[in-house]
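Appendix C. Worked example: Diguanylate cyclase (GGDEF) domain-containing protein
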Amino acid sequence: MAATGHISPRGVRWPLLKHRRRLVVYICAVVTLHVTGIVVFAAMTPIRWQDLVTFGALLACGGVCIEATRRLGMPAGVSRDLLSAWWLPVAFLLPPLYALLTPIPLQILIQKRVRQTVLHRRVFSGAAIGLSGGVTSVVFHATVSEPSALDGGSAAPIAAALACALLFSLINTPLIGVAAYMANHDIRWREVLWDRESAILDVVELCVGTIVAILCSISIFLLVLALPPVMLLQRSLLHAQLQAAARTDPKTGLLNVAAWQREAETEIVRARRTGENFALLLIDIDHFKQVNDRHGHLVGDQVLVEVAATLRGQLREYDLVGRFGGEEFVVLLPHTDPGEARQVAERLRRRVGRMSVPVEEGMVRVTVSTGVAFGGVHGDDLLTLLAAADLALYQAKALGRDRVCLPAPRRPGPAEMTHADEHRRGRGEHHGRTAARSHGPAMASQDRLKGC
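Step 2, the predicted output written as structure tokens:
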């Protein structure tokens, strides 16, 4: 597992200190616990040349896989690997000290040869993996008296190895997940702790790691046979991630325009066939150019990342959210009536308005303007809905920004104007009270929607 990339604001010498205090304390606590474990077990562990040879061989295999990844190329956003295939055998076959040490050289190699990221993230990632491996090693050695029993084909040691491999994942995932949640409260816990694709990959990693451990316990030379299949699995995993990366925007991780359009058109066709309601939101960050001009494009990129995370965290799993280009985002809301769509748009506007991005001078805050269009009301196809939402967004900008607007109604002709005037005189006050009652919860704040 490799930490995701992060862009630090311009001029920030210590990016870690720009995060929330709780996150800083948590990262420091995990790293301190990892270092303490290394010191304690170093004092308790006798050094044997057989252990050093096994440790070196497994590290070398991990290094070969990392180098192969570098040669294949790994774009930003692709972060899964099969390095567990090498540090799980270390946890099973060697004393816990080696499991604590294993991530350090491999993370350094990733940082130097594959992808550079903010240093504290790389250090934290290594510490979390080291702690997970150390605990796994302690539990396995307490359960299986002799690790070499793995080569006998006995069911009990193999079952213990599989259980401890699962324990490794159950420790490492929450350690990383807590940090991710502290960094961004808008992220869903389910996204951090449970994802179907990630769960499948975890199972593959644990099985491969256990198989490599069994082969290595039979003979260290069998690692030569294990290395090519692991590299092939890594290559296929990378190919799948590259396919996913082709659908996503590299800065925000949201769907890119082409992928969003394909999925949105499919969803609209389905909704029209079943007669279900749906809505489209076009969201634009207000005065984004001023953020770039005042704080630099790196801060602007971080604002995009935070806004994207906020939008994703406030939407349902089946809502389609993508980056439309520049500072614009687009959302398709299936199974959503007009009242619910306005509520969602207002909630997103308020949530982004409370968001802050740390910079050297303090905090950067932004607002968003949103245009809303309803399927079947403002159009039946994607292009018509986008045009309607764009007109509503333009109206929100013209009325002062930081608000939600609907498309302006079509201007009636003279005959329609006369009829409308008579109609309003007959129902004016009653209609106004009724509209205020019906739209109160959905419109949130009347001043934001005035004239929209």
